[in-house]
Amino acid sequence: MAGYIPEIYRAGLPGGLSLLGVEYDRVPWVSLTFMAKRGAETDPPGKGGVADWTAEYLTLGTTRRSQLQLAQEIESLGANLQARGNWDVTLITLEGLAEDFSELMASLAEVVQTPSFPPEEFPWLRERRRAELAQILDDPRELASRRFYRLFFGDAPYGQAVRGEPGSLAAIQPNDLTDYYQREFTPAAATLVVVGLVPFDRVEEEIKRQWSAWRGGGPASPPYAGVPEKLCPPGVYLLDRPELTQSEIRMGYLGLPRSHPDYFPLRLVNYILGEGGFSSRLMTRIRSDLGLTYGIRSSFQFRRAPGPFLVSTFTPAQHTAQVVQEVKAVIEEVRRRGVTPQELAEAQSYFVGHFPLGLETARGLAHRLVSLDLYDLGLDYLQRYQERISKVTLEEANRAALTHLKPEDLVTLVVGPAAQCTDALRSLGPMEILGEI
What we know:
The protein is an alpha+beta fold. Helices cover about 45% and strands about 20% of the residues. The protein is globular and about 65 Å long.
């Protein structure tokens, strides 16, 4: 099953910087990614967004070129520069034609190693992000998801939004971004991922030329891999939005880290529960049988530290309590009774069949390599992925469901009109009406 997967090469520099790559020969393209192995989980308290802001700030000018000059040079090559922070990682990615590999690698090295953090760009960066955030928070779906994480994790690292909140926008100052860069951008906690039509010996030569002298900052923050000391107690929480006619519902509890040995059986169980579209149990019950929503999905967000398990859906306000009750019942049913042999076989077929699609482009393959390196999955991970999915037994899947599905731990957030759903929600048990963030 894994014969089509290209060989992965790995190398390192004396300063600690790692190189991971693949000679991808399907198209004359190359994807270059610098990965600092720390992300939004290291944002200072009350300043969510620092990692993501810092990533973008790096692209706004270097000690050699202004933001305009840099953008014009990259555009002239038909290349694309992107930067973003996420949980556990900060990524700077530059993609373009393989024939321009040397120029692209030089530009990536320039952006990462010699940012100028131009002070005149910071007010513009703040205002643009403020406008983006205002637009995001005007969407009830985004508001519900962000508020759930804040409610559930509280002051723990995963409680802050990756791109920031209204309060953090005002609190973040330029020195927060430069401090993050100087601390977290260090060769000892970084990897370069190179995927494209460039032979390994040339990549290694260029890496040594462009990166050997870089010493960066550090020491990087300790990897965040713990469990929060305090989480939101199970129960129902209501954020009143009287202008809405339907409720956004988020239900979740603390899940597992990416390193957990039950990762593969639990991926399959969750596909059957709520990730598998119209074939999932939640979609069948809540949409097809009861007609209470157009869409519902569950997910385990596997990170370096335990991330959340989350069910996301929406429904007309008058049906809010019924949907909450039915979601909990479906989770309990899967936990207690397990999945069927046919469901497991169909889930395995889906993952095995769709796995190659993520390897068809240089970008998709680079994304896989980032995860492989970030979570120490081993160089044989891609080769063994389909086999490990296929070998999950019904007993293993049902044991994972029994162990890791926890309907009694659910924290439920409803964003909707209190006048239409409060009484029914109170009938389910303890309920708290929330104030604003």
